[in-house]
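> run fold Phosphocarrier protein HPr
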Amino acid sequence: MTVGIVVVSHSSKIAEGAVELATQMASDVGLVAAGGTDDGRIGTSFEKVLAAVEQSLAEAAGDGVVVLTDLGSAVMTAESVKEFASEPDAVHLADAPLVEGLVAAAVAAQGGAGVEEVRKAAEAAGGAVAAPEAAGVQEPDVTADFELINPLGMHARPAAKIAGGLSGMDAEVTINGADGASIMELMTLAAGQGATLHVEARGEDAQKAVDYVRGLVADGFGEL
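> ok
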């Protein structure tokens, strides 16, 4: 099994749409939408969210659940549900943007990450995890250049795979100057097929991070 993920939104359409998007990139992960009120209006429902969390806990079979929310009252509902859940210690609330955080979390879970790593991946996607301050400019420990061979280049799925994997490593990685752990920054590169990705990595897992990106690019992100 993998870590389960619950999406809490004021809108059922937003929750279901976000789950549909993330499923395209992480088909083996249990994603449960809990959007709107019980009678279909905009808002949140304690009962609906609790049912989604309990379903996810059962499907995760001990691996834990990460909950992502959209607006303020959804956060409060999720916090209340955590208190009343059958396994409150297995429920982890992520302070992350709903869509970007969900995609990063789902990709991390698909790769076998544990519940804390999945939560951190979600939060890193939105910049919630601050990078350590450097005392001046530090030379990269490892650098490499890779040519994109997949037909669509750097779109949402490749960006999610890169960011999801790198977010769990002890390395600071930039790709063409963009934060390698940020889906949105990678997508703004607008790098098409044939473009070169210049990767710079610093930290304990620098070589591992570069090798990870190398493998994804060489495989065409599974799109060839």
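The CA atoms of residues 163 and 181 lie 4 Å apart.
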